[in-house]
What does this fold into?
Amino acid sequence: MRALIVYVSVHHGNTERVAKAMAEVLGAELTKPWKVKPEELLSYDLIGFGSGIYWWRHHWGLFKLVENLPNVGGKKAFIFSTAGLNIRPYNHRKLRRALKEKGFEIVGEFSCRGWDTNGWLAKIGGLNKGHPDERDIGRARKFAEGLKAKFAR
It folds into this structure.
């Protein structure tokens, strides 16, 4: 299985830590959305899309990449995120919809708490300082192991 993880990690490296843990388990390559051409994604069997959550949605760079993709005809994808307010169904809805509109089959979703100092939260020291912690990273690895097992069948 050839896997790629496209991610954005802006403030504290929260999402990067999760992406690296998943990539290690999956044997996946890592890239940023602005460093990959849309047509290059077509050569992968599994593609992960993830970022921190900014005002209840993923980073704009992921949406720009997805917008420029052709229809992928059932290619497998997963979504992940880190967030101050970890409300996965709500936080992932816009990216899930955009990926499905391009023909992706979503095979899994993962989210965990991340240290959030976006906007006014900086004035109070942020939310979830210390996250993702080792337990969160362990959950990310377990999620990736589940994906790997699905593809091994």
